[in-house]
Design a protein that fits this description.
The protein is α/β, with parallel strands linked by helices and about 375 residues long. It is about 40% helix and about 20% strand. The strands form three sheets. Strands 8-7-6-5-4-3-10-9 form an eight-stranded parallel β-sheet. It has a five-stranded mixed β-sheet with strand order 11-12-13-14-15. The protein has a two-stranded antiparallel ribbon with strand order 1-2.
């Protein structure tokens, strides 16, 4: 929950949901909103898949999903799970036996699509395997693969059909006394997704996994996801998120964290506040920010950095950041520490100097956190 007693207009009141476990990651309840991504390597290429999982985890992914389309992938999954630093969700479509095999291979969660997993009897077999192997389940409703009888009833994908699909499969799980599940109701259309998620949030207390499916490339998909997911998160809906991009999974993780950071729901790494630059800039803001984003990727400590080209807004922004730099004249600018003007620094040395100051501040914050625990 994001609460600010001084500025109540910043408050977000999260929807109350049951808490389940995905491996060792708590999902729902008062747990932090988990960031998820999915590998795009061949699952049978174990080394490539593990490398991608590790890169995603290093970028901050709490959970990683892996597709299990065939028996060979099921066999590979066992080794991937063993080497993964984060819980693995097995993505299951069409073949219910893949779900059983994935549970046996040690997957922390099974993602099953109600529209294509098979009849209720087959779903029950997957449920049994999940229970036997301490595995949770995500019901993954998707507007592109809804059940035929529901499409015939409603005529087209709509929020109501997606909610009804989800509730039908929740009933199957609950009838089998299985409650370790979360649910998603994804569509590539932002309006459809948002309405479906609002409907399912009102109809169940299950944890909710948010996503705008098949959102697009890095730029267009980021914008679409920020609008759709950001809106829902602001309303308090969502316990895990995945930003679906036609891009490197690491980029999905970065975007997911930025969405959560912008709403004050998760804090990780350096939040850079920078101006778009203009003719008043005292240094090249764009190139400086690009360099700092790369040089500061290793910082995991939540902190803020302002990089402003001139004195119009620079001092004001620096008041609210841990470290700041504001452009001045004669080839130098002002360095701010803890909101106060500290010392001048030449533009040609400022990037190295800012990195040093950020690393120093991160160490101080880490030490203070350890002392408080």
């Amino acid at each position: 929950m994001s609460l600010n007693h001084v500025r109540p207009w910043r408050n977000i009141y999260r929807r109350k949901s049951r808490q389940i476990m995905v491996g060792d990651v708590a999902v729902g309840g008062d747990a932090p909103i988990a960031v998820q991504t999915m590998t795009n390597t061949l699952t049978t290429d174990v080394s490539a898949t593990v490398a991608q999982v590790q890169a995603a985890a290093e970028a901050g992914a709490d959970i990683v999903r892996v597709s299990v389309p065939d028996e060979a992938s099921s066999k590979a999954l066992k080794e991937i799970v063993r080497e993964s630093p984060v819980p693995i969700v097995a993505d299951i479509h069409f073949h219910y036996r893949r779900g059983i095999e994935a549970a046996e291979a040690g997957a922390a969660c099974l993602r099953i699509n109600p529209g294509n997993i098979g009849d209720e009897k087959r779903v029950k077999e997957v449920i049994k395997a999940a229970r036997d192997h301490n595995c949770s389940i995500r019901i993954g409703v998707n507007a592109g693969s809804l059940e035929k009888h529901l499409l015939e009833k409603y005529g087209e994908p709509c929020p109501e059909v997606m909610v009804e699909s989800g509730l039908e499969h929740i009933r199957i799980l609950q009838d089998n006394d299985f409650h370790e599940f979360k649910i998603s109701v994804k569509a590539s259309d932002v309006f459809l997704s948002a309405a479906a998620y609002q409907g399912i949030a009102e109809a169940t207390d299950a944890p909710i996994h948010l996503g705008i499916t098949e959102a697009g490339g890095l730029v267009s998909g980021t914008i679409k996801s920020a609008i759709g997911l950001g809106n829902l998160l602001w309303m308090g809906i969502g316990d895990t998120i995945r930003v679906s991009l036609s891009a490197d999974p690491v980029e999905e993780v970065k975007v997911g964290y930025e969405i959560l950071k912008s709403l004050g729901l998760r804090h990780r790494g350096v939040n850079i506040i920078s101006c778009p630059s203009c003719a008043r800039q005292g240094f090249d803001v764009i190139k400086t920010v690009e360099a700092l984003e790369q040089r500061l990727e290793h910082i995991k400590t939540p902190m803020s950095l302002s990089i402003i080209g001139c004195v119009v807004n620079g001092p004001g922004e620096a008041l609210m950041t841990d470290v700041g730099f504001t452009g001045g004249g004669a080839g130098s600018g002002m360095v701010y520490l803890a909101g106060k003007a500290s010392h001048k620094m030449s533009n040609d040395q400022m990037i190295d100097h800012i990195v040093e100051e950020v690393e120093k501040k991160a160490a101080e914050l880490d030490a203070a956190q350890e002392a408080a625990e």
